[in-house]
Amino acid sequence: MQELNEKEQLQLEVEQLIQALEDENIDTFRTLFLEIHPYERAKFYSKLSSDARMHLYRFLSPTEMAEVFENLEIEENEYEDFLSEMDPTFVADMLSQMYADDAVDVLNELNKDQVASYLTIMDDEAAGEIKQLLHYEEYTAGSIMTTEYVAIHSNQTVKSAMYILKREAPQAETIYYVYVIDEEKHLAGVISLRDLIVTDDDTMVSEIMGDRVVSVSVSEDQEEVARKMKDYNLLAVPVIDFQNHLLGIITVDDIIDVMDEEASDDYSKLAGISDVDSVDKSPISAAKKRLPWLVILLFLGMLNASLIGHFEGTLEKVAILAVFIPLIGGMSGNTGTQALAVVVRGIATGDFEDENKFLLLMREAVTGAINGLICGILVIGVVFIWKGDFFLGLLVGISIFVTLIVATLAGAFVPLIMHKLKVDPAVASGPFITTINDLISIIIYFGLASLFMSYLIH
Amino acid sequence: MQELNEKEQLQLEVEQLIQALEDENIDTFRTLFLEIHPYERAKFYSKLSSDARMHLYRFLSPTEMAEVFENLEIEENEYEDFLSEMDPTFVADMLSQMYADDAVDVLNELNKDQVASYLTIMDDEAAGEIKQLLHYEEYTAGSIMTTEYVAIHSNQTVKSAMYILKREAPQAETIYYVYVIDEEKHLAGVISLRDLIVTDDDTMVSEIMGDRVVSVSVSEDQEEVARKMKDYNLLAVPVIDFQNHLLGIITVDDIIDVMDEEASDDYSKLAGISDVDSVDKSPISAAKKRLPWLVILLFLGMLNASLIGHFEGTLEKVAILAVFIPLIGGMSGNTGTQALAVVVRGIATGDFEDENKFLLLMREAVTGAINGLICGILVIGVVFIWKGDFFLGLLVGISIFVTLIVATLAGAFVPLIMHKLKVDPAVASGPFITTINDLISIIIYFGLASLFMSYLIH
Questions:
Q1: Where are the transmembrane segments (chains A, B) (predicted)?
Q2: In the structure, what pLDDT confidence band is assigned to residue A2 with cuts at 50, 70 and 90?
């Protein structure tokens, strides 16, 4: 009930807002709009028609629009269109009012000329901060950090630290951690606001600060940053360069987005699809995202077919062999996908970092052998009961046993090699491994069949 | 460099800690141990031998052990062993010192008798809180919330609110949001600590509190809670019952764990494996996690084989048909997995909530048709060039076209139906859909082949 009412109320407000926009009723619109949560404002804005948005820009200040854009979730290619509807100086004002990291996210979706022209008309301080952040490579700590943090010195009292904190609060992205730096901006310590407010005013910062600060390097991978923040339960983490200078901070809300992004990225790749998460508005855009993989796999499948083609003579003599091709191929594909998933996740979570890779592969081979043995024995039994042909059962069973070992090894080996070559191991998608293992299974199956041939022809 | 030094230092400290434990050097141990981050303490503890842990318990207070257990990441079945090493009153003390939600997480891994006996010897207040939380169903907001929040009334001044905040800070799990309640504990508003500290002391709470509080219902799914906190960028969210009573809060660190859990759960299921994330120490435990799926898929594959068996006569006449079985099966499996992944993610992120499910299926069918048409034409060309047989190419091409439509539909339909039936749609794993689609593709391929028969026999 609660949930429904909440939703209904929001729906009602959205209708009132649209009405106010159409009626050009600025006061009603502003009162209502500024009352709802920034996330709702951004959602409302993103769903408007272009015409309605043009009205809205006249009703809101650049600062108010900045909050909308900080919460906006639209497709990458839409930013250019949305910004082009506004006056360039309005955009520049808006960008300089946004948190630097969010402004950088927006600018990263534009072409270089547009970025340069907005930066030119922006106020110098904001432009300087943004220019610095634009330099960092995508997916690194630098690319998601912000420069709006609160810093103090260790020879201050808690009282003066609180004074600085209150002064900086309106600009800072978080005030829940305060970073202690020395004269050269080296990171020296950290204090949580929690510690500050429960400590006596006259206490020196140096007495209560933690001097073992968990920090990340500016070039560190964003997934690594997320892992650290998760492990250490941090609401923000300082970003430093190799000389321990404090460059910025990364807040937990950005890390939640990173985690979401990385998880859906791994998921997409396992499913063999370019991006599972942007909603497809048309079948054409959906087809576009899936077709590249399908075509690659089609040609791999053709390779597979030509391989079986070599055994056409064998198949003409013993047609029943064809019956078990999908079973063996399927089992090798499934077991390969399982091994792949375990290894890709293990690499992502860092669980394999200290492990001997050779031992890891051996463990996978033994795992494949155990599963192969059990499945193989099951198959021998079932085929014997079903077809009454012990040698056929033995052939299929042994094939399953051998392919499961090889397929498990392949599923583990491919991502490990990719990781070694500094390629994202998740690129070795499930369908890719499945199709490769299909190939391997055919070679094993028909190879064994050729050996058994005299037993199979009755 | 930085990273390496940090790691080396930690390694050194771990060695010193172990040495201090062995030498029973309590002072050295405590100084060093309490200096490292609670996460490092928990990691150190979890890697100790049982003997070493027995030493450690004598060196630390229940309160200090509580912090270790709050940060502990061990296998579910290990909790019982670890706790059984300690004195029961020590365990009870420790549990009552932990945040209630973390204590509940530990107790949930024990059997009912053990839980009851610990609760009996625990102090009444902590036992009461924990008992309440133990009632909530797994995966709901109630099961991950904690009762340690700060609440104030609206007719207070900021000064008195800050006074309460400082008093409650040591117990509260977060003090960065303060919740405003009325006499009957109805949730009336929220203030961030940020707002409190920048506001004049004499201001009334009612003037600055936000009265549109984003909250979650106690029975809401934890994934839903995570989505809300992500969308609204919250560090904590209040949990209410259907009458708007404040029951507890959920903090962002718990939500990060939920997101991680849910993502790896979806990933595991797509790969057809029970749990991709716990590291396998032996091939036997690895095989155990993967075998159930493999055996199910083996029997589905057998069904598939028996289906092809019906066409043995056809195969004897036209052996070349067998060559394309894996290609067609593989393509249908791949496209089905893609559709499955898109729909499972769409359901998880709530993107399909307002959408007409029939239109969604239609869109998938058209997507399948577009991909099928392109892949089908490619196949006709390749087979014609390769085998010089136009009718064979046409048969395989049309089969690809039809199977891609049906397989895409199946991939989308199965998770939608499961969601409708309130089953987690991710249960329809990739390998499952792949194997089902294998079956479908065989029927289509051999069905069409029977129609084309006269053209195929030369």
A1: 291-312, 318-344, 365-386, 392-418, 439-457
A2: very low
